[in-house]
């Protein structure tokens, strides 16, 4: 019974040993996330059996996870993000077992940031380790911690590993391009596949996509259309591209084209196929180590682990020897490539030196020609310079004469401008004394003096009551002074409300609001002006500035014709139309009604501010109108 148990334990040990060796052998041919998953399985198998190897593979898993799991790597899906915190967990656990507590704490702390991504068992164990580390890390000396951190910060192993990877990648790509140039597509594809795997380890998805598409194109060039189709499908399915990008659409289009070509090629006979595609068909010969691998798999299937282990060891030894031989061949080939490149560089340098000498000779010849041309140009230039000097002297004398003439003309022009400006001021002053300032400005500035316009205006007529009896016993000087005293402030009020005095009639005047310039509130301005005149008369009479005076004011609004009327020698700014006559008639009605301010309905309708109570309008017939005019007695 004891012998049986011993045999069973031996068998299980051999099985585990073979399985572990199998994982390690598989690991050498894997890259990227597949390699990371295999590393996790291997670390679990080594747990509690081989601490040194467990730590080695845990470090490798952590470095690989940091390289490939990041936001820019589209090869990693959301469901695979857990691989990074699990890698930190394994490395933290391995350091904890080896009593390297500071390192263990560092990586177990990293697990906490993504602890929700890992399973409950590992999450719980992480918290347990961290609790134990709270006490253990306090016991470490400050000096030891300082030295360890200083060494860790140097990261010598990481730097060496990075340089080694870059050198291996550069060499692999150089060999791949060499084989591709010599149309040895099988070897080229093999080297490009190695480069793709190295880029996977670096997490560089853009380079992975680029070289995968390049490998697919090499399969096309070698006539392996079905393999190319499969490779394009692999790019679309396994490269982690989920969205319908331009690259995916291009690959799908290429797959459809290759499927059409594959169908046409499959219809040809083998001899015609070889002539058409120029492909050499061959089968890869079986290597000696492949035989031992097959036998090891057979013995493992038959559960004869002892023989399986023996065959597997033979396979590993032969495989390593084969790989070493292949590496030596690649190194020799690389040396040959470097030798050829150096020769090509030397040839290019010689060609460049010859080209430089030829260029220098050409430059010397060109310099001599330029020197001769320069002498000729110098003679010509001196001649031209002399001619130019003479021309400049003549031009200077001519310019001096012209300048004197221009100075005299400018002085005359300035005198004339001053005279014109003074005359314009005098004209404006004289004209402003005869007509309103707005009319005077319109007469002076309007280019089209004969233009006639139709405008909506409010017309005011004002008459001083009992003017004739009042001035009957006055001297002419007293009459003029009275008119100036009365009309002076009235004109100021009219102009302050944007009105224009059209005519002074001795005992009254006519004013217009809305021509030649309108403020869009012409009826309001006329209405306010009339009230202000009446109020001012009462105020001045109360102050004994003027005797008690009553006036009659009539307001009416409507469309009139405005413009300059007369002949070429004498013109007057005139306002003509039925509203002017109606306004005069309304002013005359103020005597009949015994009021000072009488307004038509047309004026009332155009007021902005109307009385709260509708005024009592009275319809009256006036001379010259068929229909009666509605009037409102304001004051």
Average pLDDT works out at 80
| Percentage of residues assigned to helices | 55-70%
Tally of helical segments = 21
Contiguous uncertain segments of 5+ residues = 1-17, 140-164, 272-284
Sketch the major β-sheet. Answer: 8 strands, mixed
Taken from the alpha-carbon principal axes, the silhouette is elongated
For the secondary structure, the number of strands is 8
Strand content: 5-15%
Class computed from helices, strands and strand pairing: alpha+beta
Rg of Cα set: 57 Å
Order of helix and strand elements from N to C terminus: HHHHHHHHHHHHHHHHEHHEEHEEHEHEE
Account of the protein in words:
This protein has 21 helices and 8 strands. It has helices spanning 2-27, 32-46, 51-68, 83-97, 101-113, 120-136, 142-154, 156-181, 185-202, 205-221, 225-238, 246-266, 270-277, 288-301, 305-434, 437-445, 467-471, 476-496, 522-542, 578-593, 601-605, and strands at residues 453-464, 500-504, 508-513, 551-566, 571-576, 597-600, 618-620, 629-633. The chain is of the alpha+beta class and 635 residues long. The longest helix has 130 residues, at 305-434. A hairpin with a 4-residue loop joins strand 4 (551-566) and strand 5 (571-576). Strands 1, 2, 3, 4, 5, 6, 7 and 8 form an 8-stranded mixed β-sheet that branches.
Brief overview:
The chain has 21 helices and 8 strands. Strands 1, 2, 3, 4, 5, 6, 7 and 8 form an 8-stranded mixed sheet that branches.
Question: What are the defining features of this structure?
Answer:
70% helix; 21 helices; single chain; 8 strands; 635 residues; elongated; alpha+beta
């Amino acid at each position: 019974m004891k012998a049986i148990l011993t045999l069973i334990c031996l068998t299980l040990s051999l099985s585990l040993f073979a399985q572990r060796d199998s994982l390690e052998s598989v690991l050498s041919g894997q890259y990227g996330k597949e390699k990371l998953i295999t590393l996790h399985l291997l670390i679990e198998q080594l747990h509690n059996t081989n601490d040194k190897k467990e730590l080695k593979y845990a470090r490798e898993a952590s470095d690989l996870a940091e390289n490939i799991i990041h936001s820019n790597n589209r090869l990693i899906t959301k469901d695979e993000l857990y691989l990074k915190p699990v890698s930190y967990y394994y490395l933290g656990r391995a350091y904890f077992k080896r009593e390297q507590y500071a390192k263990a704490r560092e990586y177990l702390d990293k697990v906490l940031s993504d602890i929700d991504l890992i399973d409950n068992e590992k999450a719980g164990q992480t918290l347990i380790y961290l609790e134990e580390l709270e006490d253990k890390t306090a016991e470490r000396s400050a000096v030891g911690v300082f030295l360890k951190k200083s060494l860790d910060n140097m990261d010598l192993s990481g730097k060496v590993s990075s340089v080694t990877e870059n050198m291996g990648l550069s060499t692999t790509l150089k060999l791949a391009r060499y084989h591709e140039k010599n149309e040895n597509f099988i070897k080229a594809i093999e080297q490009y596949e190695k480069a793709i795997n190295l880029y996977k380890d670096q997490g560089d998805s853009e380079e992975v996509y680029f070289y995968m598409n390049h490998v697919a194109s090499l399969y096309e060039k070698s006539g392996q259309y079905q393999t190319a189709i499969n490779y394009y499908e692999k790019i679309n399915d396994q490269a982690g591209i989920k969205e319908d990008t331009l690259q995916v659409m291009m690959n799908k289009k290429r797959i459809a084209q290759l499927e059409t070509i594959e169908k046409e090629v499959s219809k040809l006979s083998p001899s015609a196929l070889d002539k058409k595609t120029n492909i050499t068909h061959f089968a890869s010969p079986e290597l000696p180590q492949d035989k031992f691998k097959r036998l090891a798999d057979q013995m493992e299937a038959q559960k004869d682990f002892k023989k399986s282990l023996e065959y597997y060891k033979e396979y590993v030894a032969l495989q390593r020897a084969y790989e070493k031989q292949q590496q030596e061949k690649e190194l020799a080939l690389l040396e040959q490539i470097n030798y050829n490149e150096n020769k090509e560089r030397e040839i290019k340098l010689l060609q460049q030196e010859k080209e430089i000498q030829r260029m220098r000779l050409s430059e010397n010849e060109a310099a001599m020609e330029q020197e001769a041309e320069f002498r000729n140009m110098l003679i010509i230039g001196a001649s031209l310079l002399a001619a130019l000097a003479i021309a400049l002297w003549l031009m200077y004398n001519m310019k001096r004469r012209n300048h004197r003439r221009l100075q005299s003309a400018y002085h005359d022009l300035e005198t004339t401008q001053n005279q014109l400006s003074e005359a314009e001021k005098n004209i404006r002053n004289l004209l402003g004394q005869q007509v309103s300032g707005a009319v005077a400005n319109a007469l002076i500035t309007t280019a089209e003096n004969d233009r006639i316009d139709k405008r909506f205006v409010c017309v005011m007529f004002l008459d001083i009551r009992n003017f004739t009896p009042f001035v009957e016993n006055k001297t002419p000087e007293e009459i003029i002074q009275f008119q100036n005293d009365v009309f002076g402030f009235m004109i100021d009020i009219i102009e302050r409300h944007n009105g224009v005095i059209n005519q002074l009639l001795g005992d009254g005047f006519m004013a217009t609001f809305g021509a030649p310039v309108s403020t869009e509130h012409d009826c309001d301005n006329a209405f306010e002006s009339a009230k202000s005149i009446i109020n001012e008369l009462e105020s001045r009479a109360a102050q004994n500035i003027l005797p008690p005076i009553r006036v009659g004011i009539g307001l009416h609004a409507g469309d009139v014709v405005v413009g300059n009327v007369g002949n070429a020698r004498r013109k007057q700014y005139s306002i003509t139309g039925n509203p002017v006559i109606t306004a005069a008639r309304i002013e005359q009605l103020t005597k009949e009604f015994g009021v000072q301010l009488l307004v038509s309905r047309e004026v009332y309708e155009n007021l902005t501010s109307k009385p709260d109570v509708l005024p009592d309008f009275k319809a009256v017939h006036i001379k010259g109108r068929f229909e009666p005019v509605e009037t409102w007695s304001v004051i």
